[in-house]
Amino acid sequence: MSSYLVAAGISTAALAYKARHIARDPKNPAQWAICGVVAGLGTAVTLGSPEVYTAFNAAVGIPNLARIFVHLMAITAILSIQVFFLHVADPKTARRKARIRYAVFATAAATMVATFWATPLPIDEPTRFVERYATTELFVVYMAAYLGFAAWAMLDLIPLTNSYARNSDRPLLRSGIRLISAGCAFALLYSCNKFYGTLGFRYGWDIPSSNESLSRLLTAACVSCVAVGVALPSATRLAAIATWPRRLRLYRRLHPLWLELYRADPRIALNAPARPERDALPIPSHATPQLLRRITEIHDGVWRLRHYLSPHVHSVARTTARRHGLTGAEARAAVEAARLAAAIRDRSHGAPPHPDEPDNPPLTGTYSGMDAEAAAMAPVADALTRSPVVQQVLQATTPETAHDDN
User: Measured between alpha carbons, how far is 370 from 392 in angstroms, rounded to an integer?
Assistant: First the structure.
């Protein structure tokens, strides 16, 4: 029971997640195929649970009716995987290539329905269905249609998914496809094990008692791999939620620096905020692009101030930082904050710009990524509003003295 519940829960969560993509793009056949995969597997594994199986049959009054629904939903999910990869590989030829898959599916499904209704199955059997009815007329035909389609589709899908995974340059997509491929391999093993059991029970072979347990285990493994593989390529949103607290802190720490640069030149803002002094909190999925935008706008603001960065102020700031006992990164942050504060002041007072580019503009360097760059900017933002070095440098220089070295 537990393996069924785990697989059903994973499938339900994956379906709920992927259904949002259908709402955004209802005409995308690949998205519909993905939902077909998850819905088919989820329905099959839920109805396959012995408790649900028995309750369903009791409600409709037809013994073992849940069994054919389980099998039909399983091959529907398999067909959906085939259709999905056809659309991913080549959307222009996908519809044409899918026709043969639809035809094989329809043949298998029709055979299953016809033989199910023609075979007497009077006793409800949620766990040992094959063992009880293997000797019944036409039962082997029913199982051959079901398992034959599954095995044929798996042999079609395993090389296709592995080839696509090798050619993918997106790590999450590649991992997701490899999980789907693993799920296909489990399905192929399930088909072989199940058909072996069917033939064994029919012809009196010595079938291990673990055969049915192995089938249930392979089913749960297949469903779990495919459901996770389907959802994994979209897991960047989950990663965004995980990084949100850290990026939110960086985003807020940079606000004082961004605000001073914005007030000096509002053109740095891609979208001018109605109340720039208030720092709106980005939602988790927007934290990354918002932080990147803030970093970009800060760089733009520094670039627009480049001709107001005074070498004289730079020298005074270094001396003041040493006098306060600052060293290393703390001293660099205070000096850069003081240079920017003086440049903003000088521009606002109409001081003439320097004709030359500054030798060492603030906030320049090589960083390993966005987070590292934001972390390097944050101490400068802190110093801009808190460091006594900034205030003393502003008091020790004026727009006139700052440009004496010209």
Answer: 32
Best CA proximity match to 48, nearest among 72, 79, 24: 72
Which residue has 């001396």 as its token pair? 319
Position 1 scores a pLDDT of 46
**DSSP conformation class of 394:** H
Distance CA 319, CA 305 (A): 22
Rounded to whole angstroms, how far apart are CA atoms 40 and 84? 14
DSSP state of 112: H
Q: How far apart are CA 4 and CA 70, in angstroms?
A: 13
264-286 pLDDT, tens per residue? 999 998 887 878 888 777 766 67
Q: Are 258 and 294 in contact (CB under 8 A)?
A: yes
Phi, psi of 8 (to 5 degrees): -65, -40
Cα 166 to Cα 174: distance, rounded to the nearest angstrom: 7
pLDDT digits (tens, 9 = 90+) for 245-255: 888 888 899 99
pLDDT digits (tens, 9 = 90+) for 300-316: 999 998 888 888 899 99
Residue 13, H or E segment: helix 2-24
Token pair in block for residue 190 = 């399930």
How far, rounded to the nearest angstrom, does the alpha carbon of residue 133 sit from its chain's CA centroid?
44
CB 336 within 8 A of CB 384: no
> Would you tell me how many other CB atoms lie within 10 Å of the CB of residue 74?
25
> Nearest to residue 140, comparing CAs of 104, 77, 67, 194?
194
* Average pLDDT value for residue range 26-32: 74
pLDDT tens digits along 182-192: 999 998 998 99
DSSP 181: H
Q: Domains in the chain and their CATH numbers?
A: 2-234 (1.20.1070), 240-403 (no CATH)
Residues 165, 174: contact at Cβ < 8 Å? yes
Q: What is the DSSP letter of 265?
A: -
Question: How wide is the angle at C-alpha 128 spanned by C-alphas 69 and 207, nearest 5°?
Answer: 125
Rounded-to-10 torsion of CA 39, 41, 42, 45: 150
- Whole-model pTM over 0.85: no
Q: Using CA atoms, how far apart are residues 157 and 191, in angstroms rounded to an integer?
A: 14
- Which residues, 6+ apart, have CB-to-CB distance to 390 below 8 Å? 334, 337, 338, 341, 383, 384
